[in-house]
Amino acid sequence: MDSGNASISSLASQICNHIASIFSKPTTHPPAVDLMVAELTSVASQKGRVFLYGVGREGLMLKALCMRLAHLGLSAHFVFDMTTPPITSADLLIASAGPGGFFTVNAICSVARTHGGRVLLLTAQPETGSSVKHANVVAYLPAQTMADDKEDGGGDKSRTLLPMGSVYEGAMFVLFEMVVYKLGEVLGESPEAIRARHTNLE
Q: Are the CB atoms for 107 and 136 separated by under 8 Å?
């Protein structure tokens, strides 16, 4: 392996290890993967629908999860898509507010609760976030977000490997892959069945 490839491999390993470390941090909160699998299993057993919402890069991660939930056979919808149906008491909204709260996330969660929907909130600020009060279940992802990415003090600082909310967003992707894997086992979905639901309009 030449020095260029070795350098790239080392950088990739540092990033992956940083994100992986999020899932081994000591916490009094239950594992986010267990909470999500439990909530999704419950809604699937009731033939309910799953709605997902987040802003910015958090929203992109949730769109990726939305696609995989559809592949698993759930009725999954990203909020504001043109074909999004109304939420009911049989349904679940999964929302993310890494830094603790966003005006739009607060509003969407509040509307979902008003119509009887259950709300699972992903956040790195489970005690102080403004969105927490709108949630039935709070899944804690102990990663850096834009709420705490600023370094203290002055002077020259080395450039951060993963800036702003990148650690949280990367951890979301890994978390969702674990959720999809475990949920597929619970629902008894084979790789063939999952693949058969993939679009052919591409």
A: no
